[in-house]
Amino acid sequence: MSQHIFVTVVTPTAVAANNRGEGDGSTLSTLQKITRGNDQYTTVSADAIRWGYRECLQNSQPNNVNRTFDAEADKYNIKDEKYNPQTYIDDDLFGFMDAKKDKDNKNATEKRRGALEVSRAISLDPYWGDIVFGSKGGEKGKTSIHNTEVHCTAYQYTLALTPSSLKASERAKLLLDAIPAIKHVGGNYARFLYEFRPESIVIRVTEDPSPWIMNCFERVGDSVGCPRLVRLVEVKDILASELIVAGEIADTPYGEKLKSLNVKVYRGVKEAIAAAKEMLKTEVTV
User: Fold this and answer.
1) d(Cα 116, Cα 57) in Å, to the nearest integer?
2) SS3 for 117?
3) How do 264-266 and 243-247 pair as beta strands?
4) Contact 58/70 with Cβ under 8 angstroms?
5) How many CA atoms lie within 13 A of 25 on its CB side?
6) Cα torsion 149, 153, 154, 155: sign
7) Residue of 222, 221, 240, 219 lying closest to 230 (CA atoms)
8) How far lies 75's CA from each of 61, 67, 72, 90, in Å?
9) Share of the chain above pLDDT 70, in %
10) Partner of 20 for a Cys bridge, out of 9, 80, 117, 190, CB 3.0 to 4.6 A?
């Protein structure tokens, strides 16, 4: 049976804002939101998170990625416009689509579905409509004042990957290395510093094709807990031997409880990543 990796990340709590692009200085800079129950929550797209992982791999594996972003020129460069998942990690992990027609004007699109799946990031806290105001520099006019929605919260998202779906399965370990190294999340936070690295993390390495660990974190008082994850281990819907839990959650009663259920619990996220790599049936050769 195939081995699958599922990772749920909860970020540190910080102030998030949409503060970039053509909306700068306008009154149109709004956070993306979804409704859950009677509350609104802010959200960050999966594409924005994927951009962050692309940047990590561009920095750590510069010779093995096809598409790179040149910040000075503010544009993308592609080494091989025909794409090659055998050679390039990003073409393998994230997929590609080259929409085109042949000489007879028939569809000749070349595409590959990305092996890596990423969920939307959802805030742990409801959004109550916080707004800050700013003003452009220099001479002031009627349009000088602008407003920006802000949200002080943590975000939660999940990654899913089946290493055997990759052209080179060992690349799964390079993705694990990128999780604590993620820097910029494109889109909303290109100019607004916000950490998308894990404050706490749950990693599941399993032959079960269903994640079960999505949205396992929730706000408990001023901290973060995972009562549903504890329950899933207690009732054996998730085997303790498949789980690695790490970060600040380790210092909470939930971490202690998971430890008592024989889950591998680490205080350090990077130590947990190293343990997860040991559980994978692949070797890094690229």
Assistant:
1) 13
2) strand
3) parallel
4) no
5) 9
6) negative
7) 240
8) 19, 10, 8, 17
9) 92
10) 190
Residue with token string 């699958």:
4
Q: Which of 20-29, 79-88, 122-131, 149-158 has the lowest mean pLDDT?
A: 20-29
Tokens 């910029």 belong to residue: 184
The whole-angstrom distance between residue 161's C-alpha and the CA centroid of its chain comes to 12
Antiparallel, parallel or unpaired: β 95-98 and 121-123: unpaired
Structure tokens at 2: 């195939």
Please report, as a single letter, which amino acid is at residue 184: H
Q: How far apart are CA 125 and CA 30, in angstroms?
A: 17
- What's the helix, strand, coil split of the chain in %, to 5? 25, 30, 45
pLDDT value at residue 46: 93
Per-residue pLDDT band for 110 (boundaries 50, 70, 90) equals confident
Percent of the chain with pLDDT over 90: 67
Distances (CA, A) of 282 to 7, 141, 163, 172, 278: 18, 61, 8, 8, 9
Q: Of 240, 258, 262, 236, give the one whose Cα is nearest residue 249.
A: 258
Taking the C-alpha atoms of residue 195 and residue 198, their distance in angstroms, rounded to an integer, is 8
In 41-93, which ranges are continuous DSSP H helix?
Answer: 46-60, 89-93
